[in-house]
C-alpha cells in the first residue's frame, strides 16, 4: 500500500496570506518526500473566499519541480469545468515535468454555483463528464480524434503526449463507482464516509470491474483525515476543532452522506453535534502512532486499498510547524509498519 498526502492550501477567512500558505505547502511537500510518502495531491473548488485552489496546473508544475520520487496529482480536479482537450494538454505537460509521475483524479462537481460560474447546467453534468473522460483517455492514447458528442466536437490530436500519467475517477455514489470501473480507472474515495460505506462501494467497484472486464486496471485510493500525536486527548484538543468544522461544511453543503449506514447522522443539526468520540470511530486515522496503525489495519482488512491518502492540516489549522511534525511522525512511526523494507529518510 502506498501513502500520500492531500494538502489543503487555504487561508481563511479571506486568503490574505495565501502566498505564505502555498510556501508552507511546498515546504511540507519536501518533508513528505523525505520521510517516505509516495504521493502528493491537491484539491480544487471555485469561488471559495479562503483561496481554495481553483486550478491545479501551476501547483502541479511546482510540485514536479521540487520533488524527484513521489507521485503528484489531484483529488479532485473538476473535469466538466474545463475543455477536455485543454485538460489533456495541461496534464501532459505536468506529467512530462514530473517524468511520468502524474495521477489526475477527476470528479464531476457538486456545487450548483460552480456550474453557474461556467454557464453550465448541472442537469447535464454526468453526460458532460463522461464525454470529457473519453476525450482525455483517447487524446492521451495518441489518437487522431474525430469526436462528435452532445457537448463537444473535437478533431485532431494532442502533442506532446504524457509519458506515464494515469486518470483516476472520484465517486461518492453507487453509479459513480460503477462509472470508474466502466472506464477502467482507479477510484479515489471521499474522506467522509465510514468504513462500512467504503467497503460496500469498494465491493461494488470491484464487482463492476469484473462485469466490464477492467479489473486489471482498477485500484482503490482511500482518502482519510487524520493526525498523529501522543494521545487521543491531544488530538481532540489540538486537531479535532479544525476537522469538525471541515466535515460540517460538507455535511451541510453536500447532502450525499449515506445516512442509513451512519445512523448517528440523523441527530446532527449543527457542527456541535459532531462528537469526537463517536465521529472518529471507523472514519478517522488519529491518535498515537500505534492508534493510527490499528485504524489503517482495519481499513486495509475491510477495503484493501492500494493507496491511503491522508489530509492532516485543515483550512484553519493546526499551524505549519505542527503540520510538519505530524508529517514527520507519520512518515517515521506509522508508514514503516506497512513496508517490507525501511522507508527512506
UniProtKB/TrEMBL annotation:
| Taxonomic source organism | Actinomadura nitritigenes
Name the SUPFAM superfamilies on file. Bacterial luciferase-like
The molecule here is called: LLM class flavin-dependent oxidoreductase
Q: Where is the Luciferase-like domain?
A: 1-302
Q: What keywords are assigned to this protein?
A: Monooxygenase, Oxidoreductase
Entry annotated with the keyword Cell membrane:
no
A Pfam family? Bac_luciferase
UniProt keyword Oxidoreductase, yes or no: yes
Query: Which Gene3D superfamilies does the annotation name?
Result: Luciferase-like domain (3.20.20.30)
Determine the domain of life of the protein's source: Bacteria
